[in-house]
Design goal:
The protein has one domain: Alanine racemase (TIM Barrel), CATH 3.20.20.10. It is 43% helix and 15% strand. It is built from 9 helices and 8 strands. Strands 7-6-5-4-3-2-1-8 form an 8-stranded parallel β-sheet. Helix 4 crosses helix 5 and helix 5 runs parallel beside helix 6. The longest helix is centred in the first third of the chain and has 18 residues. The protein is globular. The termini are far apart. It binds pyridoxal-5'-phosphate.
Length: 227
């Protein structure tokens, strides 16, 4: 009789499976698994869910709200040196100061005003989080991100006008589109702008993203469970 595999029952079981799938997708694409950083997106989950994942060796986490991150991460960071927390949600100017003080990476730089505000806060605080530009590859009106046709110019403005390094690009493809053209498109924009970090791929499509060059996959529900 054929045995059916049970779905992974705990956060650590799910994490193990995600790691396996990342490694397999990387190898299938002729890449080494170490080239792909797992960003564990822990939004809505508390320390009791996050701690075992840190215990299992994960070091990179993603949050989508500044306030929520400030409420739960400082104690975790204090007791686990070397953690890296990414902001993956939209950033308002009035939260930029806190964001610069707290986050290691801000993945959602997407407009002139926030680029300018971040430059001011970086100067004021002497903290230099890595900055990625979010590209709205599907040009969805309700979605954050710079429009694709404005991406090159925006990246150049960030660099020349505000002195930002811009080390990565990030995208969230439209829910009801095929994701692969969006991933390929983001990869092209990165290449022609000399950017090597590509944050793309979530629980539903990270293998595809790895195939198309993702260096960072942002995975929430496949690790922590449904929100
Ligand atoms: C929530 C979120 C994720 C993770 O989504 P899952 O589908 O749960 O893996 C990734 N990126 C961003 C920007 C998010 O807000």
């Amino acid at each position: 009789m054929q045995q059916r595999k049970k779905p992974p029952a705990t956060t650590l079981d799910r994490l193990a499976l995600v790691r396996e799938r990342i490694a397999r997708a990387a190898r299938d694409a002729g890449r080494v698994p170490q080239e792909v950083t797992l960003v564990c997106v822990s939004k809505t989950f508390g320390a009791q869910d996050i701690s075992p994942v840190i215990g299992a060796g994960e070091r990179v986490f993603g949050e989508n709200r500044v306030q929520e991150a400030l409420e739960k991460w400082p104690p975790l960071k204090a007791s686990h040196p070397g953690l890296e927390v990414h902001l993956v949600g939209p950033l308002q100017s009035n939260k930029a100061h806190d964001a610069v003080l707290f986050f290691d990476v801000i993945e959602t730089v997407d407009r002139e005003k926030i680029a300018k505000t971040l430059a001011e806060k970086i100067q004021k605080t002497s903290r230099h989080p890595k900055l990625y530009v979010q590209v709205n590859t599907g040009a969805e009106p309700q979605k954050a991100g710079v429009l694709p046709q404005e991406a090159d110019r925006f990246i150049e403005r960030c660099r020349k006008e505000y002195g930002h390094k811009i080390s990565g690009l990030m995208c969230i493809p439209p829910l009801d589109d095929q994701a692969s053209p969006h991933f390929a498109f983001l990869n092209q924009i990165a290449s022609r702008n000399g950017i090597s970090v590509l944050s793309m791929g979530m629980s539903a499509d990270f293998e595809l993203a790895i195939q198309l060059g993702a260096t960072h996959v942002r995975i929430g529900s496949a690790i922590f469970g449904e929100r």
